[in-house]
């Protein structure tokens, strides 16, 4: 690991981070791909960690998701918001790859590039590489997203309405449209666009699409995007073979994974380690370190069960002190105690080699801090994480209670400088998760 793990603690733009296992395990191996994944429901601070690690990387990649994700990175007092771009694009010495597993809304991408360029992100044209196999999020996908949510009524999933689900649905139905289609025979692209539009109009008669206007717009997009597009599978293969250091930034987080998350309250892609392989075309044997990012408490955006949620003054305190508002949706995040049952489960799926604990300083004012360490269902302890949302909604959480440190640790950068209560909090996490070191 770069500067983020050469010491026990580092600053993630004002947030406290610590490696919850021997730090030697979290050093970036130049011969292997390093992966950063969210270990809860997202918003753990992955982008900030990636920004730090990118300093010692040659290539930073996004492997899945779309502009439903959001990362904020502060550099020299300037705040950059990323939704489709890898957070490492700020580093002028490394390339940024948007892989085949990402779904791309071109208007959103160009807007994101423009906004960040105005803040000082220059030279991105020489650093950004986009996969020709990545699927396009069309405006009609976003309209359909909203119509599908409206149809569900009180059973809506609370999606971002960014068109992510419908785009992955088109991909799975094999009538999706890829970047390569846009850059190929435009008549064939237009035919595919019309076919997809008519298909959705049959399902949603109220859908309105000005097909000819959209085709004119996408012809312009094709010219703008063409210099950035290439076959990223062979590109990454050659770069890894030549010894380049590659960092992968997972969007969303493991509990939003479409297979392993709290389905159906999930995103539409694999946010777990498997999505790295399929979303970039990487074989498993090139993956080295898998860094799980864990917030020192738990948050989630949108609907779905949340066993350790706090609907009280403590929950509001966490929300206010942690500035828990979604970067993409601007929705207030639900807050609760750290749930180690969740983190243990995502560790099973992802095989974390190290954890990065963020935002410990948000807990500074608490006299007591609870950690969820077990679930009971119908009075009996269970040893699995429920796949049924009915079961998960009815679990009783077992907690351990630790004394708070009741002082500011915002500027502490070394483990032995932390109050003993804060060190005990970290040790409780280490002891419960038993993530192996060397």
Can you tell me about this structure?
The chain is an alpha/beta fold. The protein folds into two domains: 9-132 and 231-433, Adenylosuccinate Synthetase, Chain A, domain 1; 135-229, Adenylosuccinate Synthetase, subunit A, domain 2 (Orthogonal Bundle). Helices cover 32% and strands 20% of the residues. The strands form five sheets. A ten-stranded mixed beta sheet has the order 1-2-17-13-3-12-4-7-9-11, with helices on both faces. The model is unreliable at 1-28 (pLDDT under 50). Its cofactor is Mg(2+). Homodimer.
Brief characterization of the structure:
It catalyses: IMP + L-aspartate + GTP = N(6)-(1,2-dicarboxyethyl)-AMP + GDP + phosphate + 2 H(+). The chain has 438 residues and is of the alpha/beta class.
Give the helices and strands, then pairings.
Blueprint: E1 9-11, E2 16-19, E3 33-38, H1 46-53, E4 59-62, E5 71-75, E6 78-82, E7 95-98, E8 103-104, H2 106-118, E9 128-131, E10 135-136, H3 139-152, H4 164-173, H5 179-183, H6 186-203, H7 211-225, E11 229-230, H8 232-241, E12 246-249, H9 273-280, E13 287-295, E14 298-300, H10 313-321, E15 334-336, E16 338-339, H11 340-350, E17 354-358, E18 368-377, E19 380-382, H12 389-393, E20 396-403, H13 420-433
Helix pairs in contact: 3-4
């Amino acid at each position: 690991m770069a500067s983020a793990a050469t010491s026990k603690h580092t600053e993630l733009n004002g947030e406290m981070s610590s490696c919850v296992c021997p730090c030697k395990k979290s050093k970036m191996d130049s011969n292997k791909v390093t992966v950063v994944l969210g270990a809860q429901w997202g918003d753990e601070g992955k982008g900030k960690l990636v920004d730090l690690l990118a300093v010692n990387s040659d290539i930073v990649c996004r492997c899945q998701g779309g502009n439903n994700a959001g990362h904020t990175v502060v550099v020299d007092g300037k705040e950059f918001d990323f939704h489709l771009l890898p957070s490492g694009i700020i580093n002028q010495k490394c390339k940024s790859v948007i892989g085949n597993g990402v779904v791309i809304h071109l208007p959103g991408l160009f807007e994101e590039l423009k906004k960040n360029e105005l803040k000082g992100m220059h030279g991105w044209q020489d650093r950004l590489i986009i996969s020709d196999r990545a699927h396009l999020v069309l405006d009609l996908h976003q309209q359909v997203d909203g119509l599908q949510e409206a149809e569900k009524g009180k059973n809506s999933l609370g999606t971002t309405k960014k068109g992510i689900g419908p785009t992955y649905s088109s991909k799975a139905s094999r009538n999706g449209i890829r970047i390569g289609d846009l850059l190929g025979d435009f008549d064939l692209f237009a035919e595919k666009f019309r076919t997809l539009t008519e298909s959705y109009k049959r399902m949603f008669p109220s859908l309105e699409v000005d097909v000819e206007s959209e085709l004119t717009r996408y012809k312009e997009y094709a010219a703008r995007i063409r210099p950035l597009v290439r076959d990223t599978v062979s590109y990454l293969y050659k770069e890894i073979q030549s010894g380049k250091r590659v960092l992968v930034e997972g969007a969303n987080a493991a509990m939003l994974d479409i297979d392993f998350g709290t389905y159906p309250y999930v995103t539409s892609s694999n946010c777990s380690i498997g999505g790295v392989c399929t979303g970039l075309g990487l074989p498993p044997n090139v993956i080295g370190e898998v860094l799980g990012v864990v917030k020192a408490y738990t948050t989630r955006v949108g609907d779905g069960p949340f066993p350790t949620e706090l609907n009280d003054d403590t929950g509001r305190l966490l929300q206010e002190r942690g500035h828990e508002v979604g970067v993409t949706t601007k929705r207030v995040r639900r807050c609760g105690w750290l749930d180690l049952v969740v983190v243990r489960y995502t560790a099973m799926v992802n095989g974390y080699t190290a954890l990065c604990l963020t935002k410990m300083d948000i807990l500074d004012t608490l006299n007591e801090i609870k950690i969820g360490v077990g679930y009971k269902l119908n009075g009996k302890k269970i040893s699995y994480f429920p796949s049924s949302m009915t079961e998960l909604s009815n679990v009783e959480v077992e907690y351990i209670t630790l004394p708070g440190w009741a002082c500011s640790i915002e500027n502490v950068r070394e483990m032995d400088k932390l109050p003993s209560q804060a060190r005990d909090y970290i040790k409780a996490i280490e002891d419960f998760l038993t993530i192996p070191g060397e």
